[in-house]
Amino acid sequence: MDSATTFVDIDEVRALATWMTWKTAIAGIPMGGAKGGIQMDPAHYSRRELERITRRFTFALGNNIGPEYDIPAPDVNTNSQIMAWIMDTYLSTMPPLERNRSVHV
Fold first, then answer.
1. Which residue among 52, 77, 84, 105 is the one 20 to 30 A from 62 at the CA level?
2. Dist CA 16 CA 9 (whole Å)
3. Among positive and negative, which fits the CA dihedral 41, 42, 43, 48?
4. Do 47 and 11 contact (CB within 8 A), yes or no?
5. CA dist., res. 64 & res. 7, Å (int)
6. Distances (CA, A) of 20 to 17, 29, 36, 45
7. pLDDT digits over 8-66, tens only?
């Protein structure tokens, strides 16, 4: 989850994705260009609820993320715990023998 705020909308996500595309291209990084978010206020949810929301969001992204495609990065209202839930959920969708290939995410 790149962002979790009450005011994220599709136009903002598109603008951020465009900005990320240019930023990574100029820096010579062969990834970037994607952004995503959930319209919510994380302060109104328990840790367990945030985990469930994050894991469901990650599962819904399916094959749209991964080390060779797009790597989610933290942004507004995300932290290392949320990123760990994303990685754990992503890895759980892969066959066991392929998981080690992706641990550099």
1. 77
2. 11
3. positive
4. no
5. 24
6. 5, 10, 12, 29
7. 788 887 888 888 888 888 888 776 667 788 888 889 999 999 999 999 999 999 888 88
Residue 20 near residue 29, CB atoms below 8 Å: no
Catalytic residue among 16, 32, 35, 85: 35
Q: Is the pLDDT of residue 105 over 60?
A: no
Residue 23: active-site member: no
Ramachandran sector of residue 76 (left: φ over 0; alpha: ψ -120 to 50; beta: rest): beta
Q: In the beta sheet, which residues pair with residue 70?
A: 66
30: number of Cβ within 10 Å: 8
Q: pTM for the full model?
A: 0.75
